[in-house]
Structure formats: C-alpha cells, structure tokens
C-alpha cells in the first residue's frame, strides 16, 4: 500500500483549536492503519481508517480546505485497502469519490493539489479492473489535468512521470497478451501525458512511439499508420542524436516495406510451399 501524504497547513488553526485536535487524532489513526497495512493486516487497517473518518466527521466545517485535504488522503487509503481486500467494487467507488473531491481542490489550489490529482489517475491504472474503464477515466480527467501543466510544478512533473510509467507498463502487458488495440490506447495516453509534462518531444516519447509502431505492425491494416508515426518521429530522433532510436525507426520502416506476404515474388514462393504441403498430404 502506498500512502499518499497531502501535507496539511496546521498553522491555519489556533493551537487550542478543537478542529486541529480532530485533524491530529484522525491522522494518528491513519498512521496506525498504514503500519497495519504494511504488515498485510488489511482488515485491521480498514477498521483504523474508518475510525479516522468517524473522528474527522466531528470537524466543524466540511468546506474547510484542510478538512477536505485530510478527507482526500483517507479516500486514497480506502481505495487501496479495499483493493487489497479484493473488494474491487468498493475500491472503485471510493476512487470515484476521490476524484470528485480532488477536482474541486485542484480548482482552488492547483499548485498544492495538482500532483495528487495525477497520482489518483496513476492509482486508477492499478485498481480499475476494466481496461475500458481506465481509458474512459483518463479521458474524462484530461480536462482537469490539462490546466496543471500551464506552469512548471515539480510535484506534478514527478507524479506525471509515475503515471506515464504505469500506462506504459500496462500497454506492454496488454501487448504481451495479444490485446493489441487495448495496448495502443494505453500507449497513446502515455505519450499524451508525457508530452504534456515536457512540452516537447523527448527520448522517452520517441521510444514509446517506436514501441507503439511495433504493435501496429502486427495489425496489417494499421501498417500505413505505423509508417506515418515512424516518419513523423524520425526527425526528432535525428535532432536529439539518439543513434540507437534512429536505427530502430529505420529498421521498422524496412520491415514494413519488406512485406513478404504481399510482395509478388515472395507471395508466389509462399504459394508454392503451400502447394507442396497440400500435395504431400494427399500422397499420404
């Protein structure tokens, strides 16, 4: 279990504040829950997290920014704990609530909460069982996340790197199981977020585009699209002087051009092999 720590501004409260005491008591319960989760005592961790929510309920103002930040932290925890308990429906339900809370927090203070919105997107790639749900969620959240890249924020950059790596890993897993179209969707999202993070084409985007083209080559109807992608990214590879990536691109273009099953002479030869094979079966 990963603990997402949204720092609270405790100096926003007087030292003798009852609300501050509520926050600290809830955070104490949360710390205990995290320790239990590390020991894989997930039911006990769930009990402590629910207790933290009960304590937090005594806060005087539910619109208070620090209250909502603490609430978001506990929603992160609940999503993961329910997932570890294999209660996937409840895990996804808490994730939905988390996005609703974070969407409003980002509007109020994108510098403070932006990275946690991206981290919630990364969390969704791990706990959403349906790959279609994951893609739909990413598309839905892009409008909110787009505003986060208008100015540099180290937290957002680090969180986006984590999200991109998760999306790329999922794309590779989908490709390995033959789910090529699903893999391409995850690669497309990974490249989109990676470009948005940097504002330019870097080595990482070139490498992912090459991996994406490799999958497209496996789908004959998508080979023209693969050619377009590779030709588009080749100048960037040359400009960055990434010789190995340049060579990979040229090799893939050569593979596409040398389409053995479609090239007339090769096609004729393959047909002869097929004829020989069928003839030998008849002789038996």
3D architecture notes:
- The protein is mainly alpha-helical and 284 residues long.
- Helices cover 78% and strands 0% of the residues.
- It has 12 helices and no strands.
- The protein has helices spanning 18-38, 42-56, 65-84, 88-108, 110-127, 131-146, 154-176, 180-198, 203-218, 223-239, 243-257, 264-283.
- The longest helix is centred in the middle third of the chain and has 23 residues, at 154-176.
- The chain is elongated, with a radius of gyration of 25 Å.
- The termini are far apart.
Helix content: over 70%
Order of helices and strands: HHHHHHHHHHHH
What best-fitting shape do the alpha-carbon axes yield?
elongated
Number of strand segments: 0
Separation, N- and C-terminal Cα atoms = 62 Å
**Percent in strands:** under 5%
Strand-pairing-aware structural class: mainly alpha
Give me the Rg, rounded: 25 Å
- Regions with little confidence, pLDDT below 50 for 5+ residues: 276-282
Q: What is the count of helical runs?
A: 12
Largest sheet: none
Look at the structure and give the mean pLDDT.
87
Summarize this, please?
Helix content is 78%, strand content 0%.
Main attributes?
284 residues, disordered C terminus, mainly alpha, elongated, 12 helices
């Amino acid at each position: 279990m990963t603990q997402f720590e949204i720092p609270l501004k405790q100096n926003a409260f007087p030292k003798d504040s009852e609300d501050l005491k509520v926050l600290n008591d809830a955070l104490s319960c949360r710390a205990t829950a995290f320790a239990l989760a590390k020991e894989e005592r997930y039911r006990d961790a769930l009990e402590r997290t629910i207790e933290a929510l009960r304590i937090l309920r005594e806060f005087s103002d539910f619109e208070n920014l620090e209250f909502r930040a603490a609430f978001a932290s506990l929603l992160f925890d609940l999503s993961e704990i329910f997932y570890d308990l294999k209660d996937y429906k409840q895990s996804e339900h808490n994730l939905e609530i988390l996005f609703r809370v974070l969407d409003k927090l980002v509007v109020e203070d994108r510098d403070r909460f932006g990275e946690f919105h991206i981290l919630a997107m990364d969390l969704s790639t791990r706990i959403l069982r349906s790959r279609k749900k994951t893609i739909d969620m990413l598309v839905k959240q892009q409008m909110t996340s787009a505003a986060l890249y208008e100015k540099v924020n180290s937290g957002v950059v680090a969180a986006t790197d984590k999200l991109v790596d998760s999306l790329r890993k999922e794309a590779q897993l989908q490709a390995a199981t033959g789910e090529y179209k699903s893999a391409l969707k995850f690669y497309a999202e990974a490249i989109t977020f990676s470009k948005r993070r940097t504002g330019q084409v870097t080595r990482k985007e070139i490498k992912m585009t090459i991996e994406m083209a490799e999958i497209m080559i496996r789908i004959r109807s998508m080979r023209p699209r693969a050619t377009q992608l590779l030709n588009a990214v080749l100048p960037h590879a040359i400009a960055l002087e990434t010789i190995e990536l340049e060579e990979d691109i040229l090799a893939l273009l050569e593979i596409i051009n040398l389409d053995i099953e479609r090239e007339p002479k090769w096609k004729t030869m393959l047909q002869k092999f097929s004829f020989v094979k069928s003839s030998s079966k008849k002789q038996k």
